[in-house]
What we know:
mainly beta; seven-stranded antiparallel β-sheet; five-stranded antiparallel β-sheet
Amino acid sequence: MQKFILGNDNFGVGKIMYKIDNENSVINDLTIIGDQQLFEALSDDEQSEWNWALYPPKLYLREVPYQMRGDKIEISVTEETLDNYDIALYFMEHNDINGIFTIDENKGLVFEGTTYISGVEKKLKLEVKLDD
Length: 132
């Protein structure tokens, strides 16, 4: 099951773009965008905490080096990583994230972590899962 969870809401997965340079061990671009229809359902609901948003959330990594750990890629996203590489959750503005990206041939891509969204006063769970 593909999912893009922010807080308690699943935005689903709409568009996925990726370019990975395995020869140089660099993720040139990995962009995951929430599903437009699920986003519209959440943002159109006056009771939703996302009723102010204009478009779905987008998680991205650009020009990020990686190392293989066994048969998977694992990238720890920390303040240091954010300072050195182009990684963020774009949801009306660029928001820092914290957590672990795992790309596994058998389990697909998983990000598990947290983020702060401007205007939302609490740390939010951020989880993205893409199955093969």
